Structures are given as C-alpha cells and as structure tokens.
Amino acid sequence: MAHWKKALVIANGPLPSRRRIAGWLDEETLIVCADGGANRARARALIPHLVIGDLDSITPGTAAALAGVETIRVEDQENTDLEKVLDYLLAHGITAAVVLGATGRRPDHTLANFSILAKYHSRLDLLFVDSWCRMEIIDRPVQLDLAPGTTLSMLPLGRCEGVTTGGLAYPLVHQVLEPGVRESISNRVSKSPVEISLTVGKLLLFIVDKK
Amino acid sequence: MAHWKKALVIANGPLPSRRRIAGWLDEETLIVCADGGANRARARALIPHLVIGDLDSITPGTAAALAGVETIRVEDQENTDLEKVLDYLLAHGITAAVVLGATGRRPDHTLANFSILAKYHSRLDLLFVDSWCRMEIIDRPVQLDLAPGTTLSMLPLGRCEGVTTGGLAYPLVHQVLEPGVRESISNRVSKSPVEISLTVGKLLLFIVDKK
Predict the structure, then answer these.
(1) Given B103, B118, B183, which is nearest A107 (Cβ)?
(2) Cys-Cys with B184: which of A207, B47, B139, B154 at CB 3.0–4.6 Å?
(3) Could you say which DSSP state residue A124 is in?
(4) Does residue B3 surpass a pLDDT of 80?
(5) What is the mean pLDDT of each successive set of 10 residues along chain A, which is 211 residues long?
(6) How many CB atoms lie within 10 A of CB A127?
(7) Is there a contact between A147 and A190 (Cβ–Cβ < 8 Å)?
(8) Are B118 and A180 in contact (CB < 8 Å)?
C-alpha cells in the first residue's frame, strides 16, 4: 500500500456529482468503499480499489459489476462500516482521507458520522464532502485560505469555549458556542486567510460550496 | 387563532411523502410555511393557512399559486425563518408542533435546526419528522409506546450523564453519552413502553420509521 498517500472513502449516503468527485481524485488516491457505498460508487461509474465492511448492503448487481475488486469482510457489531474503513487506512499508514456519502440520508447516521469525524480527526487528516459543503473538525488554531464571500458555519460538538475568528463578516471574540444554545450559521469570509481558534472543545466547520 | 390546537410547520428541506404528511393533518392543525417551505408545500399540493419569514425564498410560481394565503413578513437577521414561525406559534398560544423539512438539505442547516429543536422544546411540544425518522429532545424521564422491533437512536447534544433505558435490546445504565465520544445508534425496542431517563443534558431521540 506504500504508494497510496491518501484515500477517497465512499460511504453509503448520496454522493456529489461526478464533476465534484473528480476534484478529489488523482493517481495517489486509494478509492475505498464502505459496504453499501459500493452501490453508490457504481452509480457514479467509479471503480474502487477496495470494498470493506460486513458486506450486507451490496446489491447483487454491484457484486457482479465489482467482481474483480478486492473486498475485505470485517465482522464487528461494535463499529460502523465507515469506522472499519478508517481503521484500515490507519493500519496501512494512510493519514489523509476525504469521505463522500457520510451525510444526507438517515439523520441519525449523519450525526453519528459527525461523531466519527470527531473521533478520528486527530489521527487522520479527515474531510467530509457532500453536494453542499466541506466539513472538518477544528480544535486548535487554524488558518484557512478561502475566497472572500465564501459562506461558512461553525457548529459546536459539545461545549466550545474561547472561540475567536479573524477574516469573517460576523467576528467571534472569545465566544462560547454550545449545541442548542449558540452556534455560528452562514457566516461569511471577508478577508483571507480566515483564522479560527478555540481554547476548549471541538468545532464542526462547514465550508459551504452550494447554497 | 383560538381554534388551532397544534401546528404543522413546513420548513425548506425535502418533505416526506404526501401519505406520511397526511398522518400529521387534521382539522385542528394550523399549517404554516417557513418562507421557502411554501415552495415545498406547493410541490406536495398542500395549501398552508399562513406563510411566515423574510419571504426572500418564495418563487414567483409559488407566490402566484398561494396569492390568497395570508403571509407575514418578519425581518430579523438574528433568527431563522423556522424560529420566526415557532415564535409566532408561541405568541398565539399554540403549544404543539410537528416540523417537516428541517433535515436533509445543507448539513449545517440540519444541525442548526436540531439546535432550534433543543432551544424551543421546553416551551413547545415539538417533533421533527422526515422521510426516515421522528425526532425529539429528551431531557427528563419519559415513557414511549413503541412497537417491539422499532429502531431508535440517541445522539447527545452536548454531554449527557446518567442515561438509563428500559425496554431496549442494548440497555444503557447510568451511561455518559457525548458527541464524538459515545452515542447510541440503531438500538432496538424489545418491550413497550420504552423508558429513557438522564440526569444531565439533552438527548436527541430518533425513532426510525424507514431504514
């Protein structure tokens, strides 16, 4: 696996357009489907290098179409197919991944996948992408190169303290953000680079590409 | 407004099927659209009693089709169209509402709407419904009448302590649930009534109707 530097992971939710997916593909990218994600990949005419999961969600049509693709069956009721894929990446020295299809289907799964993002982000350079947004966890000071006018939301996963921003139209200065109490929705980049820092907690950052 | 006992609120996300919506309609139900929710209602051939919002998302076609419907323009950048509707309900003594279309579009909006659910649930008997799930906030002991076999998830909005359940296949006993740390996904009703209690925090409960 040594030549793969990063991975594109296809989970079992709706995928972005082929054009948007193409932006995340290059020759150094391992394409891995999490179980039923294989059906989604097939619908986008995308052939993965690998399928991982308990393999209970792959349709017969997908199984036939991907008969030549390596599949790894992992039985473990304690973690999800997406976690099985991320564990595999970590075990094989791949430390950056873009995950498609992690949002937009069952809303409890979307929220659970955000929890997975929070659980793995310290070990993997991890980004979720869907038709609307790019999503990542922020828990230390970051500088982001974003075009002025870009819409951006910050949702706290649990209580976040000391949230301070630079380069945003509605700046935050030592704010507390907390689920069900206060969050920052549809803020706007006024000046690049955007700076975000916080002292306690994990922020889920959404960079909005389509409104 | 005195004869309305409850409300069906149409937000601007994808709506469930007409058949599923019909289950939430009766003659005591005020139908209110939050701004662009009017376009969604029209696509389901549903005529609201009222449209509320800053009215910047209604298409000309919808405006024409709903020309006879009372509309209330509320300008306030500090809260969303959904909050404007819920404030209106509270101001008019309506204390129960089902909200459709609050999930499944921009994922930051979905999360922000869950925050709104948490902000309003103590004043409104509030339920979100989409094609997959019914969603509500639990922050005190509840008993729920649910058919054995029903799938159910509990996602903490912030840290939840002392979470204890009865009637579930995977019981929780004085558990801590926390975003990005531990949650309860796809648990199953083993025996009705289901009992859920917690000592600290707010749980977002998902009753899954379609997998």
Answers:
(1) B103
(2) B154
(3) S
(4) no
(5) 85 94 92 97 95 91 94 89 96 96 96 97 97 97 98 97 98 96 96 98 97 85
(6) 18
(7) no
(8) yes
Place of tokens 């109490």: A181
Q: Which residues of A touch B (CB under 8 A)?
A: 80, 103-112, 114-115, 117-119, 130, 132-133, 135, 153, 155, 157-159, 178-181, 183, 185-186, 202, 204, 206, 208, 211
**ipTM reported for the complex, 2 dp:** 0.95
For residue A106, give the nearest of B107, B181, B208 by CB distance: B208
Distance from CA of A202 to the nearest CA of B (A): 9
Per-residue pLDDT at B43 exceeds 60: yes
Q: Which chain A residues touch B153 with a CB distance below 8 Å? A: 108, 112
Cα A52 to chain centroid distance, Å, stands at 17
SS3 B111: helix
Residue B171 phi, psi (nearest 5): -70, 150
The answer to whether A3 and A28 are in contact (CB under 8 A) is: yes
Picking from A107, A112, A158, the nearest residue to B133 by CB comes out as A107
The first and second tokens of residue A208, run together, are 């909005």
**Smallest CA–CA separation between A135 and chain B, in Å?**
9
Q: Which tokens is B83 given?
A: 């909050």
Q: Does domain A137-208 have CATH number 2.60.120.320?
A: yes
Q: At A145, which amino acid appears?
A: D
Residue B34 Cα to chain centre, angstroms: 13
Supply the pLDDT for residue A1.
55
Q: Is the backbone peptide bond immediately before B193 cis, with ω within 30 degrees of 0? A: yes
Q: Do B110 and A109 touch (CB under 8 A)?
A: no
> What's the rounded Cα separation, in Å, for the pair B128 and B126?
7
Count the Cβ atoms, other than its own, within 10 Å of residue B171: 13
- Residue of A108, A130, A176, A177 for testing the chain B interface, max B β-carbons within 10 Å: A108
CA distances from A40 to A12, A43, A65, A128, B210 (A): 7, 5, 12, 16, 19
Out of A112, A115, A206, the one facing B107 most closely (by C-beta) is A206
Q: Which CATH architecture has domain A6-131?
A: 3-Layer(aba) Sandwich (3.40)
